[in-house]
Here is the input.
Amino acid sequence: MIHVYRTTTSVSLWLCVSTTIEN
Here is the structure.
C-alpha cells in the first residue's frame, strides 16, 4: 500500500509541475 501511495503522490506532484510549466 505504501508503495502505491508514494507512486500516486509522485504522479500527482509531477502533474502539478507540468501544468504550472505549461501555464
